[in-house]
Amino acid sequence: MIDLNLIIERFPAFLGGTDGAPIMSTSDGLQLTLELLGLSLVFGLLLAVPMALMLVSRNKWVARPVWLYTYVFRGTPLLVQLFIIYYGLSQFDWVRDSWAWEYLREAYVCAILAFTLNTAAYTTEILAGQIRNTHYGEIEAAKAMGMGKWLMMRRIVIPSALRRALPAYSNEVVMMMQSTSIAGLVTLADLTGVARRVFSDTYMPFEPFLTVAGIYLVMTFALVWLFKKAEQRWLAYLAPRKH
Amino acid sequence: MFLQGYLPSIMEGTILTLQVAVSALLVSVVLGLIGAMFKMSPSKPLAWLAEVYSTVVRGVPDLVWMLLLFFGVQMLINELFAQLGWEAPEINSFFAGVMTIGFIFGAYMTETFRGAIMAVPKGQMEAGLAYGMSPLRVFLRITFPQMVRFALPSFSNNWLVLVKSTALVSVIGLNDVMYRADTAKSITQEPFTVYAVVGCIFLAITSVSDLALKRLEKRYSTGVRETEL
Amino acid sequence: MKKPLLALGTLALALSATVSAETLRFATDASYPPFSKQGADGKMTGFDPDIAQALCAVMKAKCEIVPQDFDGIIPALQAKKFDAVIASMNITEERKKAVDFSDKYYNMASRLVAKQGTQVNAAWFKGKKIGVLRSSIQEKYARDTFAKQGAQLVSYGKAPESFMDLKAGRVDAAFVDAAVGDVDFVKTPNGKGFALVGPDYNEAKYFGVGSGIAVRKGDKALLTRINAALKQIRADGSYDKIQKKYFSFDIYGK
């Protein structure tokens, strides 16, 4: 029932080669998915750390804007955010005339921008929650040592919060990987986009979709394994006693 | 006129979106409870089945599941029924969307309910059985009310993610709010406005849900002491 | 727009009152004006739905017009989600392997839509981005021809999206049915400064003899009825009436 030949024939296309179709962006298939995922996560994390600090601040002029940002980006679907950035911004003449247009006209950049903003919002909440959860004893000890506020943040609070955020963050990373599949809806040929292309060429649903499902599953397992190793190393002190 | 009169169309689409979301939630709760039961059951094959279900479903993107189920499963059903000689039932987009989302989030709910049920002290269930209550009675009167308190935070999170996932059903042709928005954006040539409106609609849905669920959490936590820092 | 539809509707109702009305589901693209478009009230309008309604009236059946994105329309037909497809689908040999086609109901060339004054020749394509509708014959032709000349293809799920990106400058040209490019873009305020450029693309190998109505392979009964109905509306003038509503020229061709 399932045509294995079709899968084998088209497999390179899924991974990142082409199946004779002209490439739509810098890369295709799995390569594109990993690029989108990797870049969004890195930028998102870089944004999230300062924003988490702002969010826990007692100064409401600093905390409120960040709260609003996470509220909006966590309360709306990623698809809507992506469409607003890709189609919505192109509507305005002043955007098209500005310097940003050179970047925003690429679907690739729009996708990374949307994914980054989205993951940054979730990561900010996760980090902020863990910062608030810091054991009071740690803060007390730091103050007793004479550490200033910024030194304490840099050396004690943030590293500790990052570690404790690992389980929740691993969830976020896995969800982000699933979310990259909507990049195909703005003309990018990521893993799911290639599957849809093969499907619309051949009218066979199982072969392409089951193949990409399998690839996503393998990647999920790889990510989960990676995070397990990370937890073993950085959360070793929370592991159950072995002896 | 605002959005050339497409606003009512978008609101109609919202109603459909809500219908899909609520129906899918019901399906996911049922699947989640069954899954949690299986996972905790002494029978190895059942536990394994539930494990595979929740792992595989959460490891593949929603969009891929939707495409697979809408096109693939319909073909399977057609073939199956053709072999049996019956007229195949047609799976319309609404049904496909609800079943897919329900199926996906059933996996997440399995984890939610499993954690919640395990958090209820075993002694409670034992006491109920000791009193001669049937297992079903024990579940309904003792386990469930206590489990709700533990399940609610994770449940509300799943619900919010579910609502946002319904945005994807437009891809399988369901005339929901995103589909209407797609049409409106081409006709009105104002994609920013259209999608900003859709964003606000979703924001409204998530905010209201959030408030309602927080109320529910408060109600089910009566009498529980909160940790004081 | 509503009056002829109402007239056709009442006609269908009157005719169907004499015979028990079966429901025929026709699928159309819904975002391909003037051939099909979804109005603010959610109803399908356009050349394709109107022809479908006319055929149903003659066939004494009730018509249900269902929207479906073009790239999933043949698989959905095969999956029995509807009975026939009337979506400006060109009759090609490759598609005939998957579905059966009725006689053609119109024949139109495809054109490139680009900035006014663009000179299109073989050298022009290098490095250009061409927007196409996913799964359409325009995509196939572009893949086999334009891409070989150095162009890059960008595939969209709905045709109007390619026009939006054309206006925004994300693609250099859109390759669509001539009428769609004309009515849905060039003639609208958005299409200012754009025009249909280049030659008529009409190679039979890719574009077939024209567009037909697709039914599932082997559904001979429905096919015969549709062909008979098609002949009738051509003969009794209802085809011309519908055609005049949307086009100022004859789209049936030879």
UniProtKB/TrEMBL annotation, chain B:
It is a multi-pass membrane protein. The keyword Membrane applies. SUPFAM superfamilies: MetI-like (SSF161098). Its main location: membrane. Residues 14-213 form the ABC transmembrane type-1 domain. One of its GO terms (cellular component) is ATP-binding cassette (ABC) transporter complex. Gene3D superfamilies: MetI-like. It is found in: Cell inner membrane; Cell membrane. InterPro entries: AA_ABC_transptr_permease_3TM, ABC_transp_permease_HisMQ, MetI-like, MetI-like_sf. The chain crosses the membrane at residues 15-38, 63-85, 91-109, 150-172, 192-213. One of its GO terms (molecular function) is transmembrane transporter activity. Keywords: Cell inner membrane, Cell membrane, Membrane, Transmembrane, Transmembrane helix, Transport. It comes from the Bacteria. Belongs to the binding-protein-dependent transport system permease family. HisMQ subfamily. PANTHER family: ARGININE_ORNITHINE TRANSPORT PROTEIN AOTQ (PTHR30133:SF4), CATIONIC AMINO ACID TRANSPORTER, MEMBRANE COMPONENT (PTHR30133). This is ABC transporter permease.
Automatic annotation (TrEMBL), chain C:
The keyword Signal applies. The keyword Signal applies. Residues 1-21 form the signal peptide. Keywords: Signal. Residues 23-250 form the Solute-binding protein family 3/N-terminal domain. InterPro entries: Solute-binding_3/MltF_N. It comes from Vogesella indigofera (Pseudomonas indigofera). This is Arginine/ornithine transport system substrate-binding protein.
